[in-house]
Amino acid sequence: MLYARDARGGRIDPRRLSKLITPKLELPSATEVLSELAGAADAGAVLAAYNPRHTGYQNLKAKLAELRAHKPETPVARIPAGPALKVGMRDERVPLIRARLGLGSSEEPVYDRSTALALADFQKQAGLRADGVLSDQTVAALAMPRSTRLESDIIAQMERWRWLPGDLGENRIVVNIPEYKMRVMHGDKLAYESRVIVGKPESATPVFSHRMEHVVVNPSWYVPPSILKKEFLPGLANDPNYAARRGYVVTRGKNGSISVRQPPGERNALGWIKFMFPNDHAVYLHDTPNRGLFGAGKRAFSHGCVRVENPFALADQVLGPEWTSERLKRLIGSGERRINLPQ
Fold first, then answer.
1. What pLDDT was estimated at residue 42?
2. pTM of the entire predicted model
3. pLDDT tens across 168-208, in order?
4. Residues with catalytic roles
5. 3-state SS string over the chain?
6. Which residues of the chain have pLDDT under 70?
């Protein structure tokens, strides 16, 4: 029963890693596991089936097996701890460092520029700050074979696959946050691909999955509580017209609460169209008036939502032939309009 739960994603609670990782785990009950095993001719096959069947997971599993089969048995020579080394410093550990990095021997134990550059490359591959300085953290990483680090990365990614729904759906949209890309998939076939803008490090895009239900043309933007607290309330405290001068509408509730709305328009933060999938984070896919940002290599600029480079092309994918881009664009400026997805 423990194996079945672990295979479905029960080894750790993702929410303990971050409040922005909120998958809906499909953990089996004890009754479900026992009943399936009781009538099974092959108990091993039943238990194995609790693991993800997605192609991405299977590819990682095969790579892990390949890595372990070719794992070197010779341990990496350990480099002793010591002071941080920078270019020009002398240290008896320099020959060990050069040997570990595959560099030739040197006449003097001087930490020179070539060694520092090679170490910076290693640091980059190890996910460390690539400054070429031999720190305690870098010494620890040098003691670990590259295959071991890669193995750990693969295991971590296999675990993340367990947090996805067992059935991803025949038609789905996948946002790869660190790649700044969005893909529309029909089965295993790529139907559409687009650049996206995702959340800044301090307001990162959350990791979750939900069903997209409808599209809104000419949307209003209701300022979320986090932005309201950090930006608008301090501004309103200093200037009662702070929001109005920026084109926002402030509404005060009977209980003293304040809501701020940006009406539809060309300056609206959501652009002309947004794609809705109700979720606890109040994030979604949407258009943006700041199109110049899509030319950046690293596109982490938003408060958490995902901005799509060509939202009307995405609408073509999810709304079908009845709602063409031309028909949608004719609605621009005519008031907010909700359109339900056909599926």
1. 96
2. 0.76
3. 989 999 999 999 999 999 988 999 999 999 999 999 999 99
4. 286, 305
5. CHHHHHHHHHCCCHHHHCCCECCCCCCCCHHHHHHHHHCCCCHHHHHHCCCCCCHHHHHHHHHHHHHHHCCCCCCCCCCCCCCCECCCCECCCHHHHHHHCCCCCCCCCECCHHHHHHHHHHHHHCCCCCCCCECHHHHHHHCCCHHHHHHHHHHHHHHHHHCCCCCCCCEEEEEECCCCEEEEEECCEEEEEEEEEEECHHHCCCECCCCCCEEEECCCEECCHHHHHHHHHHHHHHCCCCCHHHCCEEEECCCCCEEEEECCCCCCCCCCEEEECCCCCCCCEECCCCHHHHHCCCCEEECCCEEECCHHHHHHHHHCCCCCHHHHHCCCCCCCEEEECCC
6. 72-77, 146
